[in-house]
Design brief:
Layout lengths: L42 H13 L7 H19 L8 H12 L4 H6 L5 H15 L4 H14 L4 H22 L6 H13 L3 H24 L1 H9 L6 H10 L4 H10 L5 H14 L5 H12 L3 H14 L4 H13 L3 H14 L4 H20 L3 H22 L8 H13 L3 H14 L3 H13 L3 H20 L7 H19 L5 H20 L4 H17 L3 H14 L4 H13 L3 H12 L6 H18 L5 H9 L5 H10 L4 H7 L3 H17 L3 H13 L6 H12 L13
Length: 726
């Protein structure tokens, strides 16, 4: 099981760019984006294909065929999730249905007739499934889709209206007349985000008007409501809400027409009216549309992005429109669209440093995502292109682009590290250091040497990290905050303590751990967020354990969970540590807490089950019934589901080893096989398997650390009773 690693999120988005001068000649960008239509969409290829599809203009060639492929996959996924003879997963069914609806562009939903029998069948199933539970949102969403698919069926519209009236009546009876329309509008707005059909928009417009009228009457009668109106002026921004409905479906002229007929009471609505008039004027510029997008950006990023995409169609030669699309698409994590848009902005104005920098940042974000998906071959190809892009930019602007490529090399180094490609990881970390030296890269290299048992080399890398920390603290250009300096001090001394613990200078190791603990305590006093506090407790607990203070260490592990119970990494790190040192009662306690957290994935819970079951087997005590029940109930076709077979005894390790080819899977299999052999008293064969785990170089796996510990010290004796913490 991989140690969880989150690539540090870089603040890569620019706030805004002035309009650069146009190049002398710039070809039109009217042609639909070219793409290769896939033969079939599968789970592994869905995300990438969906990003390409979402970036296509509505008039792109073969877009309809592309949609059919994606729709076929999503409907199949929904069918599997709702199969009556299998494991039903209504959450996945709803997710697949929502993603299927958003395959249709809002302008298509509002302006064309849609016929899709399979989508209609799924919508009908949604209505049946969620009507019995009173889930108005999901029922109304499915009904809205069916109304578009059956425009002449008035019974569907009547049922839709009946549900809305029931919801509204319930709100008034429960909370009073002041809440009339409130929940109804919330539900309808959620529906409109996914399916903005004419019927849904008309229903929303009606409730907007009645809600605004009711609020206006209340504010005239009740002084308290007048104060509320002053504090929350958006409550009566009818113009904004109505305009949003029609801009979402690419009808700004209709939005303007409706606003002109309304009595706009708020200053914000008056501002919006002016922006709309400027943006649709025959003399409008791309900046007019960008200003309109910025007006919507804070409250509705989807609508803001649509405005900028519309700007690129109206002003295809103007780079600011494409840059706006790139920036907003990046905020929505639509990285394919963001890259395409930023590339066009740079093509139109190659002499703009802000546009060149913005594209570099989008390239890096896409690279980090690719690395996060373990697609290292693709990541290496992307990095090669990014290096060429950076070199050309440096030649053009005579200065290096920011952010530095050092983070990119560090990120791909971590990808190689996770994949057990240690030589490539070391080379990438070294390359990262050749750009901008960082504590991250030095400490990662130190960790590799530490795991190899190379104390001298590890300490040299730790010294490098300390030099960087001192230099950054003293440099006025790169001055770090006091809190960050303390954090790195804690990291450096923690790792130094663990490395020194391998050697004979135990006094130096003790001193290093004490310095680390003092640093973490100092960081806590500065005030940190719950997630960082959880990390601090784990690091302090590890140092205390190394100092022989087991009770105090275990207390910190408990406090780490309490600091932020939703932090899923905490459970894996703590249970792995407790498993390594044989603390069965404490491991079970942490495991049971993890089982109750929805944030902890099936993946994590499965591996934690393996660990506590292994401890119980080695201790010769009864297996935890919750761990057994979890593995039996959550059988999966994924690797960890297959691995549960030999762990539970329903399959032999030998039979699974014969059909397993992935090196990482084999490393895990060897560890759990060795754990079973230890329970049988066969330590000699177990030792051979531990060596195989270490030889796999899967240093990012918890199993690697456990196997390394067992090779150095032998397997820890399992403690059946909890540690006395009095």
């Amino acid at each position: 099981m991989k140690i969880l690693f989150a690539l540090g999120a870089l603040c890569l988005l620019l706030g805004g760019c002035p309009r650069p001068p146009k190049p002398a000649q710039s070809p039109k960008f009217n042609a639909p984006a070219a793409f290769k239509l896939p033969e079939k969409i599968a789970e592994a290829s869905y995300k990438g294909n969906r990003e390409i599809y979402d970036a296509l203009p509505v008039n792109a060639i073969d877009r309809d065929a592309y949609r059919k492929q994606l729709l076929k996959y999503l409907l199949l996924r929904a069918e599997k999730a709702s199969a009556p003879n299998g494991k039903q997963d209504e959450k996945q069914m709803v997710k697949a249905f929502a993603e299927a609806l958003t395959l249709y562009d809002p302008s298509e939903i509002h302006g064309t007739t849609i016929t899709e029998e399979d989508l209609d069948a799924l919508a009908a199933k949604m209505v049946r499934t969620f009507s019995a539970r009173g889930d108005e949102m999901r029922v109304l969403l499915a009904l809205a889709a069916r109304i578009s698919l059956h425009p002449k069926d008035d019974s569907l519209k009547q049922k839709f209206d009946q549900i809305l009236k029931w919801v509204d009546r319930s709100q008034r009876l429960t909370h009073g007349a002041g809440f009339a329309g409130m929940k109804t509008i919330q539900i309808l707005e959620s529906v409109a985000q996914l399916w903005p059909s004419p019927f849904v928009n008309a229903s929303l417009s009606k409730f907007y008007a009645s809600r605004t009228k009711a609020l206006a009457q209340l504010t005239r009668r009740d002084p308290r409501m007048r104060a509320l109106r002053g504090a929350f002026p958006s409550l009566l921004q009818l113009g904004y809400r109505v305009a949003r409905l029609y801009i979402r479906v690419d009808r700004p002229y209709e939005a303007l027409s409706r606003l002109r007929k309304m009595k706009l009471g708020s200053a914000q609505d008056q501002t919006l009216l002016g922006l709309l008039e400027s943006s649709v004027s025959p003399s409008a510029t791309v900046e007019d549309q960008i200003r309109l997008a910025e007006h919507f950006e804070r409250r509705d990023l989807d609508v803001a992005l649509r405005i900028c995409r519309a700007a690129t169609r109206r002003f295809p030669d103007d780079a600011p429109g494409h840059a706006c699309v790139g920036r907003l698409a990046g905020r929505k994590q639509l990285l394919y669209m963001a890259v395409r848009a930023e590339e066009e902005a740079v093509r139109l104005n190659p002499n703009s440093l802000p546009y060149t920098t913005a594209l570099a940042r989008q390239y890096l974000r896409r690279l980090f995502e690719t690395i996060g998906r373990d697609h290292l071959v693709d990541a290496q190809a992307q990095l090669g292109k990014i290096e060429v892009y950076y070199a050309k930019a440096k030649k053009r602007f005579r200065k290096a682009l920011e952010p530095s490529l050092g983070r990119a090399h560090f990120a791909i180094g971590h990808g190689y590290y996770n994949a057990g490609m240690i030589k490539k990881a070391i080379a990438a970390f070294r390359k990262s250091l050749s750009g901008v030296p960082s504590q991250d890269a030095y400490l990662q290299l130190a960790k590799i040497h530490f795991k190899r048992g190379q104390m001298k080399e590890a300490l040299a890398e730790i010294d490098g990290a300390e030099r960087v920390q001192i230099a950054q603290r003293q440099s006025p250009k790169r001055r770090k905050s006091a809190r960050e300096a303390i954090y790195w001090k804690g990291r450096i001394w923690s790792l130094r303590g663990h490395v020194l613990g391998l050697g004979s200078d135990k006094a130096a190791a003790v001193q290093a751990h004490r310095k680390a603990i003092l640093a973490w305590q100092e960081l806590t006093r500065t005030g940190v967020d719950p997630s960082t506090q959880a990390e601090i407790h784990i690091r302090v607990g590890r140092s205390l354990y190394a100092l022989g203070l087991r009770a105090e260490a275990l207390n910190h592990f408990d406090r780490a969970i309490d600091a932020k119970p939703s932090r899923k990494e905490t459970y894996a790190e703590i249970i792995a540590m407790l498993t390594t040192y044989g603390h069965l009662p404490e491991a079970l306690d942490a495991f049971h807490r993890a089982l109750g957290r929805q944030e902890v994935s099936e993946y994590l819970k499965s591996y934690c089950s393996f660990w506590v079951l292994g401890l119980a087997r080695r201790a010769g005590v009864k297996a935890d019934p919750l761990a057994l029940a979890y593995l039996k109930r959550h059988g999966s076709k994924r690797w960890y589901g297959q691995l549960s077979g030999p762990v539970l005894g329903s399959r032999t390790f030998e039979s699974l080893a014969k059909v397993t080819t992935d090196p990482g899977h084999l490393a895990e299999l060897y560890y759990y096989w060795s754990d079973a052999l230890v329970a049988k008293g066969n330590k000699a064969e177990a030792q051979k398997l531990w060596q195989r785990v270490v030889d796999s170089q899967r240093m990012a796996f918890f199993e690697y650390d456990m196997a390394s510990h067992n090779l150095r010290h032998g397997p820890s004796k399992v403690q059946r009773e909890p540690v006395d913490r009095r």
